[in-house]
Amino acid sequence: MNLLELFFQRAQAQSSATKLLDAAAEAKRDLTATEQVEFERLTGKVSTLDRQIEERAALAEVHQ
């Protein structure tokens, strides 16, 4: 997977997490238990992708 694909997946996960929060806020409620689990999964994915992006970027710099 290249850097562009990693950035795209990160953006998708971040957008999905934001949509969960926005929907709950619009309904003036907290996340449901199911939404909370999904939110945590998505934010974990964002963190994992951030690490992968940093690693790939560092490797790209070394190879220049």
Give the tally of structural domains: 1
The helix-and-strand class reads mainly alpha
**Spans with pLDDT under 50 lasting ≥5 residues?**
none
H-E order:
HH
Question: Main β-sheet, in a few words?
Answer: none
The residue-averaged pLDDT reads 95
Q: Helicity, in percent?
A: over 70%
Describe this structure as you would to a colleague.
84% of the residues lie in helices and 0% in strands. The protein has 64 residues and is mainly α. It has one domain (3-62). Helix 1 (3-26) packs antiparallel against helix 2.
Task: Briefly characterize the structure.
The chain is an all-alpha fold. The chain has helices spanning 3-26, 33-62. It has two helices and no strands.
Features:
single chain; 64 residues; mainly alpha; 2 helices; 84% helix; elongated
Write the layout of secondary structure elements.
Layout: H1 3-26, H2 33-62
Helix pairs in contact: 1-2
